[in-house]
Amino acid sequence: MKNHSKQLAGAVVAAAVVLAPALAQAGVRVCTFPGSPSTALDQTVAREAFKTAGFDVSFVREGIGEGDDDGVSLKELHKVLGKDCDVIAGFPRSSVADGSDSKLLFSAGYLRSGYVSVGLRDGTARASAPDVVAATYASPAQLIAVQQRDVELDLENTAESTVDAVANGHARRAIVWYPAVVAYRGKHPQQQFAVTPASSAYADWSLVFAFGPNSAAMLKRVDRALASMSADGRLAALTKDWALPADVKLTRTKPALKPAYLDGPAVRVADAGHFIKVDVSAATDDPAFNQAQVAHGKTLYASSCAKCHGPDLNGITAPALRGPAFAPTTKAHLTIGAVFNYMTTNMPADRPGKMRDQDYADIMAFLLRSNGYGVSTTKLTADVARASTTPLAARPAQ
Ligand code: HEC
């Protein structure tokens, strides 16, 4: 959700300037995500909801920085709230990434939308296009796209260029968040797309307002306002162009964040079709690893994993890789070998299996260290990691 079109951001800034006179008093400062395709909607709903709740709003133009290529972290947003903004409009939440680990407070959702697969209306054009699926880099679209079998990926930097890849015939389909299609149609009204739902645990997202920890009272009023706007039809009217078309139904597939390593019968991991069977009955000793590996693994983690799993391993769009949420301290349900095998086959999700064996082993050393395992002088090899039947259980750091 972070890499949406920068060109659009320009258009949105222009719109905000036009609106400025009507919002002369400062009031509640509302930030939106730079370049998000839903910004126009986020501002419209914010204006109405906060007015209903009895607040004046002003829109902050550059409250949230562009971030780097990896988007904006929850920590940065937390910093922004209170300093430059009182509220972030257009915060995306889903069952796989709900931000509940952070200190932010969230309103009820005002738009439930989803990732969709878009192709051209005209079937002949679609058939002649190469079997390429376009997705926006480091967005949930990429995760959905990598779950599809036997397709070639075209990773684009913005949601707009992702839709463009279909429009200009470079890709047969694109996976995009539906509001990006709405925004694209706004700029290219002649373009017709066939929209179908993308069935994935990562497809279903709602937009909410995010508040800092001291804004509980304001949040309550805004939630009440949203409820009344929903009851009297105002919310539906404001969001009708952005909601999924009636014939595109979100199919909620359950995210399989945990069952990936459950012992007992093999469990299917999300839509990826990987089967992992784990036998934790024959626990052995901790695999040894050395400090140099931890350091190297940390560097690799920062460049290849942090954008999804979080700079501090606490999870962003992907699950946390440290602490009890990842590796329960008691009743461990995964082994080090199973995690290693899973990781070397499926991770990094944007380049599954593409790293060197020893690099994976070094990352494993870093993950073990981060979960409280002690360092030794023996180097961990991929073979040893793969064969380890030791249950992975987070320990108090030593
Ligand atoms: C593009 C995003 C992305 C990147 C990059 C990425 N991952 Fe993941 N990772 C995911 C998602 C999403 C899941 C959950 C998949 C599922 O359960 O279907 C996941 C799951 C995992 C899991 C299992 C966690 C659990 O509790 O089930 C491990 C371990 C893991 N990743 C390690 C890594 C490592 C190590 C790297 C870097 C080498 C990495 N990942 C890079 C998205 C990513």
UniProtKB/TrEMBL annotation:
Keywords attached to this entry: Heme, Iron, Metal-binding, Signal
Signal sequence region: 1-26
Ranges for domain Cytochrome c: 292-371
InterPro entries assigned: Cyt_c-like_dom, Cyt_c-like_dom_sf
Xref: Gene3D superfamilies: Cytochrome c-like domain (1.10.760.10), Periplasmic binding protein-like II (3.40.190.10)
GO molecular function, one term: electron transfer activity
Name assigned to this protein: Cytochrome c class I
Taxonomic placement: Bacteria, Pseudomonadati, Pseudomonadota, Betaproteobacteria, Burkholderiales
